[in-house]
Amino acid sequence: MNLEDLVLISIDDHIVEPREMFDNHVPDRWKAEAPRLEMDDKGIERWVFQGQVSGSTGLNAVISWPREEWDLNPSTFAEMRPGAYDVHERVRDMNRNGILGSMCFPSFVGFSNGFFQGADDKDLALVMTKAYNDWHIDEWAASYPDRFLPLAIPPLWDPQALAAEVRRVAKKGALAITMPELPHVQDLPSYNNLEYWDPFFRAVCEENIVVCLHIGQGLRAIRTAPDALFDRLLLVTQVSAMAAVDLLWGPVFRTYPDLKVAWSEAGIGWIPFFLDRCDRYYLHSLGGKHDFSGKLPSEVFKEHSLACFISDPSALKLRDEIGVENIAWECDYPHSDSIWPNGPETVYAEMSAAGCTDDEMNKIVWANSARFFNWDPFELTDRSDATVGALRAKATDVDTSIRSKSEWRELYAARA
Question: What's the Cα-to-Cα distance from 115 to each of 46, 336, 402, rounded to whole Å?
Fold first, then answer.
């Protein structure tokens, strides 16, 4: 297969939510209480709501910055590449990277909506959570229904409201919901507590909604050395394994056979070791007390899982142990991990070096995601127009220059 003939779905990218996102989606009676952006005394724009203050608005949206400036900022929209927050510019950048479809995770509310969970007025927090979902589905994704896979955020503090929101957003076209890897880190019952989580799990199974466990929230469960820099946590892949242990060895995977879990931005290199360890524990240790209905734990894990990676050249050589049907690719735009604008070159080189066949390549870069999330990439786009080559042909004017944050500020001021 030629690189330009690839079709790419990135099953993990990110939105930096624009200033006006709540304007059209909060009922009039609550508009004055909606989250708002404020500039603090350090020149950092942050979202404020009910005493909650977000982190950096940009959340590592450093695409097109020089490497030496990368951090967890930008501090303002003026420093970002417009594709981070402008859906039209995002699609242009997707074209330049040869990406047909994208699922976009939130920024300021957190990957598991901890921002709204922390609000004192939970009724108002639920209103704003619904408004966020309506904006994502009805504005961001609906602007280009041929390019985006809609994703919802959860009201975690009320299991009945959570289940109701799953059913509501499913009717609006959402395909997935982003949830905490380890709920107990967020002061919620663990996934072992089905008395709390059963309404949610039944709802996602019945509505065919994928549960995305994006790496990040669970990192707070890791106690690192007190003098270690924060960025070392980003290397701790064991958090995904901890979450997998809870779901696989607890009641969840065995209680809900239709449950689908995407291990978003978790990588895939940890999975062969994890599955080998689980099977050995089941066959030769105390794990034999668990009932997997005649299956190995590794088989049950694969029945429920889609494992997502940005770059995992060594793990791709073990794709048969992971399950080729269980692997999906992601770009992570606009974060520092992102492989924009050379995503096709990177993943193609890694798959080729691993000896992937054309069929395996297609599964990894688009077909597995399309099947798992029930999204037809060719419903609105002809296959011939969906390839890397066809999309890049529409993006020859997209500027990929590296610019410092100060240079981006100058461009922002000029546009304004």
Answer: 12, 23, 32
